[in-house]
Amino acid sequence: MFNLRRIITLLMLTVPLASHANCTKVTSTSLLSSEIIAAGYTAGTWRGACNTCGGSSNINNVVSISSSSSIMPSGTLLATSTVTTLGSGRSAGYDANHILYRCALADADSLYEQYSLRAYGNDVTGYQITDEIEDGYYSYVKNVAFRLTNTLTGEHYSRYWKSRKLTSDSWVEDSGYIYIPASAFSDAVWELFKIDSTSYYKNSAARYAYAYGVTIGRLAFKGPGLNTANQNDGDDSRTIYLGYFENWPSAWDLAGVVFVRGTTCMIQDYPSVVSLPPISSTSLSNGQTSTSNFDISLKCEDGAISSVNASTASSANVAMGLLVKNSNAVTAATNLGLVTSNGGLTHLLDTSYGSNGVASGVGIRIYNESGTALNLLSSTTAATGNTGGWYAYKDLTTSQDDSTDGVTTYTGNFTASLEAISGETVSAGTVNAQLQVVVSFQ
């Protein structure tokens, strides 16, 4: 009997135990196989996104805040942007093929992206939720709430950790390992909203350049063997923030955003489509134009200051402009030299300028009521003046003398004119271009 027990014990000791290998943070190409390197992937030293090395929200550089509930009620969207792990997940960004982690093939079912807000340390980076905005949180700035959304799950970020399971289309692998590139991690949408509540905030200045040096939204990687492995969905980031910060590929804050509060304007009415009559390429080449008129209306608080000068702590200056949002149209105009010294554009080009079937050698100019051609905004960089595309709103609009509850309507009459571009050959085709009306503090 003794010998039988001994044999059984020895047999049991020879049975291998199933286990997961540990994931490894990749900081050198020595952890990549020749096959993976040949496929175009790379590696190198990288830090996670700490408070001082996270990325920017890419929000427009000036956010206007009005205290008037009639012109800017609670829930008004102040600004929005999309941020990427590749472009701004950390201050240095990433190449898409930069490998961040290596894991065993057996761990394919245990790899996750985790995301949350920064609830620990204070009330204004993801701890206190506001009931005025669904899943919105109080920010550092008075009357401003923020909300982040994961672009792949569609879920809003929360003070409580959430996760997205990574799948084989997120990574590359060879015969021995799974490799997680920076491109595996999701992007996020930032939204800033006006709220009435002032329960939590730290800054109420008339003009404030955001400089609170802590991140707000962040992404972590969860895999066997990493210190994030014990961080689970629903854990409160107020007290649980495993992996900080070396295993957090991305984090974003509001650094660089300028918040200006005062009396302001809002866009009331504008045409969704302005149609131009057909015209032949020959007529355009001979100096003829195709034109159409349109109106833009604003609602302005009676105390709003009409100016293109930069706002100060005592003067919140309001300007308006017409923004060319399509990047191809901006690039094409720039390449043709249709750009001013302050980055404004003289012509609006087709969104697909240079493509087959699209008219070339032509662009749209916008004229005000007095017949002066306007420069167009290529970005919303403030205080670039008329050459940058900004105009004092009273220079382009006229008061309708209908003040009600301290708010007056201003209306401007404009003309869109399709014209030949000097020095360019006109070719026939369609023209489809887009402009956005913008009103902002400077």
Describe this structure in words.
The protein is mainly beta and 442 residues long. It has 2 domains: 24-259, no CATH class; 263-441, Immunoglobulin-like, CATH 2.60.40. 10% of the residues lie in helices and 30% in strands. The protein contains 7 helices and 27 strands. The protein has helices at 2-13, 34-38, 85-88, 281-285, 327-335, 385-388, 393-396, and strands at 24-25, 55-56, 62-65, 77-83, 99-104, 112-117, 129-130, 136-138, 144-150, 162-165, 172-173, 177-181, 188-194, 207-209, 217-222, 250-253, 258-261, 265-269, 290-301, 305-306, 317-323, 362-367, 373-374, 391-392, 398-399, 407-420, 436-441. Strands 18, 19, 22, 23, 25 and 26 form a 6-stranded antiparallel beta sheet that branches. Strands 2-16-15-6-10 form a 5-stranded mixed beta sheet. A hairpin with a 5-residue loop joins strand 7 and strand 8. The longest helix has 12 residues, at 2-13. The chain is flat and about 75 Å long. Mean pLDDT is 94; it is low at 1-19.
Quick gist of this model?
With 442 residues, this protein is mainly beta. 10% of the residues lie in helices and 30% in strands. It contains 7 helices and 27 strands.
The largest β sheet comes out as: 6 strands, antiparallel
Q: How many runs of DSSP E, i.e. beta strands?
A: 27
- Whole-angstrom Rg: 28 Å
The total tally of domains equals: 2
Number of helices: 7
